[in-house]
User: Fold these one by one.
Assistant:
Number 1:
Amino acid sequence: YPTEFMGALLTTEANNPKKLPSNILECRRLQLNLLGPDINRSELGFGMDVVDGKPAIRFGLLGIKNCGEGAVEEILAKRPYASFDDFLMKVDQRKIHKSIIQSLIKAGCFDSMEPNRFKLWNYFCFTVRKMLPEGTQTTKKSAEFAPQYDEAAWDQDARLEWENEVLGIYVTGHPLDGLPYTRWNDIPDGRRNVTTSGVVKK
């Protein structure tokens, strides 16, 4: 039961930033199905899910940036959500403020409702928030400081960048996918010439 074992291991070591990336890599090496967080299907920590009749590991809501345990409990208590608007209507805006909602969008929690995260971001920041009543933490004025994105520019690179920002890791893919890459542990003894790839950040 490799999927169940790795799911339990990921949950146990979820708060260890040194262990999480290596455990994710091990899931990929074993060709296990690792799914991003979903507003209706994710639990507090990593959990088991089924896709096309096959077991999969689902990323937990607590692993998302800005999402504390109180916010996650509020989200779980008000499920299910039929749409993004339904989510906004049900949750307590005093507990689920704008930073949390923005992180949920970036993490892909609403992909089953709107796969274009740029489009959902713009809708939330420049349409929905202007209609909210004054006094909530998700205020009209703060919309002025949110960037607006070109919805047509949404692609896999943007998806991975946002996932890494709010989850700390790449979940649904990796920038090196499709490029020549050899893991250090897989290099045969005595071999000196290998082809590898890397990511350089500022």
Number 2:
Amino acid sequence: ELPPVSNPADASQQTSLSSAGLEQLAWVVGGTSGIGLAVAVQLSQAGFHVCLMGRDAQRGAEAITQLHGAAGSNSFIQTDVSNAQAFQDCLHHLLDISGCPDVVFHSAGMDCPGPLEEIAVERWNLTMETNVRSAYLLLQAVVPAMRRKRAGAIVVNASTKGLIAHKEEPIYCASKAALIMLVRCVALSIAKDGVRINAVCPG
């Protein structure tokens, strides 16, 4: 079974996170609320062992209680996707201890409303780091592993605002448009390897 852990350091001491004995493993990045949590619930209902990732430990603990499955069959890993090194370390540590996930859902994101001239560069950076760079780092970690086993499904949560311009949210729209194009390009490169990737665009 996949025991609940709060951070990668704790996870390293849980030998039962070994891929031996796991049936199907799903990672949900940004899975403590909203669409990410809803997807995590559905995956747990379908019998997946679900690993949630998010910043807030309290929200993560609360989210775990909403998932289905035997006690200890799902887990929460605390990580900040806007911190590149910490997020990379978390992903590679999870690959080492639990193996390649069968399903990955990327739902980490933040809004950035306001006219262009009022958005500070720090806000631009944080939005792009959270919405786009985190997806790039996630794909960079899991795609090679999925290619090796010639199986896997990846879904990235984008938005209709990545397809249709909104004058009040230029930075958010740009980040979601970048996600959609990233997915399209990766899809072309991995289709021959038996790995699927899609973007969903709610809104």
Number 3:
Amino acid sequence: YFVDAVIVKELINDPTERERLLGKNFDGKGLYEYEQEDYWYQYSKESMEQLLKLRLDSIGIEKIKVVNPNYVWDDSVANAEKLSNEIITASIDHDKVLVTLNLYGKHWVGIALDKSKAEISYMDSEQNKIPTLLKKQLAERLSTFLMLHGVSVNLREIELELQKYNNCGPEVIENFIFYLTDGNRLSQEEAIVLHSLLLENS
């Protein structure tokens, strides 16, 4: 299901559609929380994976593996090992892997692996640095894996627009679109509308 950006802009300016899509009368299967008169949303683990796949489909991006770990990042070596292994396993049959990761039960971030470039990209809409242990483990373990193919890993932290609201979930999804399309993503306000429409029509 594809929604043109022009339609999104029109809907966000229509009071009735805006209210329906942004929470008050939106029966979005319990995937959103609406707070105050603003764009304040918390995406659950299940909705992150579902909406990311729908968003990729909406612009015709295929052959990308989405990894959504069933745990919260807590600066433990065990989690670092599990995450690295999940990314490695996913990359065996896929050149690009996208990971939605929840930090400390409070904040969503994105990690992307481009195997052909031997590059890991870290995306945080709060503009925080990647946690030290996460950076160390990803670089070491994925370098070891990719060195079997004769390359070493480069880890970069992408400079992103700072999130305006409590909207890290939507921002992870749109920042992946930014990453995959060289900057072609919706605004923070438009993103919520499009995600709502994609979910309604899934």
